Amino acid sequence: MQYRVTLIKGDGIGPEVTDATCRVLAAAGAPIDWEEAPGGADGVARFGVPMPAETLASVRRNRLGLKGPLETPKGKGFRSANVTLRQELDLYVGYRPVKTLPGIRTPYKGVDLVTLRENTEDLYAGIEHEVTPGTVLTLKVSTRRAAERIANWSFENMRYTGRRRIHCCTKAAVVPLADGAFQDAFEKVGAGYPYIQKDLLPVDNLAFELALDPTRFDVLLLQNLYGDILSDLAAGLVGGLGVVPGANIGDRIAVFEAVHGTAPDIAGKGIANPLAVLSSALLLLEYVGEHRIKERVERAVWDVLEEGRHLTGDLGGTANTAGFTDAIIDKL
Ligand code: NAI
Q1: Atom from ligand 1 closest to the CA of residue 272
Q2: What are the pLDDT digits (tens) for 17-66?
Q3: 261 C-alpha to center of ligand 1: Å?
Q4: Domain harbouring 307, CATH code
Q5: Which tens digits make up the pLDDT trace of 262-296?
Q6: Helices (DSSP H) in the chain: which residue ranges?
């Protein structure tokens, strides 16, 4: 079986880290044909927008995508490339597993949690207007349909991944209609899964509980804005944005992506850490059921991290992107 996957290399360090990822996957014998498509600055240069229709069509056709970080030119009236991708393809689940990695020094050990973020609504619906000069209104959109479908996805995912505890974290005491509806959907759908432990937790309590002891959490379900913030916080618990993978998943379409940005400060220097994009590609392999290849690459990565001789600068080492990548390929 060959998989055709849309590859959006992205901006800044994007081409460096996606090239490194493709090299590792080729060495592991992953049966993937890449279909390159523009996005970010490349999209603007070639098609006038950061997320061109051609790129969306490619993902729609292949149903699978891998994406490097994208730059949305500021102050030029462009809608964020990432938000456009999620909304146009209706990728309603923001999926981010966060796990303690061997060899990476962090204040916590044994973190193994997943953040699930509703990706399409909330303040990210982008509905704002100026009511009178100096007063603006930004709408927080919350529909029962969106709340129920992410709750359904979450519980179904937990059923077959064996995760058994979920916290739904909102601010329902302050935003009773929007956040209350999200919570209601969670409880309604969750009633069908008596073997999964369900808890409600105010999102501000979640923040301090994560700082005290993140190991007590398994799955976190959040709306768009809270999920954006708390999933970055969760990444910080295990070594930062450079090591955490992510995926945007809808019904039968999924785009996998690193959660870090274009890192303009180190772009073009060949020193970026490719681990986040590589781990996102491993999520893709898991998504299509290629567990054997995924586990083989993951073992090679862990060995390199454990040895600690070929780590990039952000992980406290002195290796460059190529050195780190070659070390993984040697292990394979
Ligand atoms: P950033 O994640 O690009 O950089 C923050 C810091 O982390 C920098 O010091 C950078 O060098 C470092 N860093 C990030 N990834 C790294 C890696 N793989 N290896 C080593 N070091 C790494 O965040 P920033 O500076 O806020 O954003 C820069 C640009 O990226 C902006 O244009 C922003 O819009 C875009 N961005 C795109 C995202 C996406 O496409 N998913 C997500 C976040 C930001």
Answers
A1: 19
A2: 999 999 999 999 999 999 999 999 989 989 999 999 999 999 999 999 99
A3: 3
A4: 3.40.718.10
A5: 999 999 999 999 999 999 999 999 999 999 999 99
A6: 14-27, 41-47, 53-62, 81-88, 144-161, 178-190, 203-212, 224-236, 275-287, 291-307, 321-331
Task: Report the nearest-CA residue for atom 4 of ligand 1.
Answer: 263
Q: Say if CB 309 and CB 290 are below 8 A apart.
A: no
Does ligand 1 come within 6 angstroms of the Cβ of 236? no
Which residue, among 286, 251, 285, has the nearest Cα to 92 in the 3D structure? 251
Q: Give the residue, by CA position, lying nearest to ligand 1 atom 13.
A: 263
Domain extent, residue 253, equals: 1-103+240-332
How large is the average pLDDT for residues 79-87? Answer: 89
Q: Give the residue from 184, 210, 237 where a domain finishes.
A: 237
Q: How far apart are the first and last CA of the chain?
A: 21
Does one domain contain both 233 and 244? no
Atom of ligand 1 nearest to the CA of 266: 11
40 lines ligand 1 (CB under 6 A): no
User: What are phi and psi for residue 248, nearest 5 degrees?
Assistant: -115, 120
Output the DSSP codes for 219-248. EEEE-HHHHHHHHHHHHHTTT-TTT-EEEE
Distance 12 CA to ligand 1 centre (A): 9
User: C-alpha 35: how far from its chain's center?
Assistant: 21
Give residue 70 CA to ligand 1 midpoint distance, Å.
Answer: 9
User: Where do we find the tokens 């209609």?
Assistant: 177
Model pTM score: 0.94
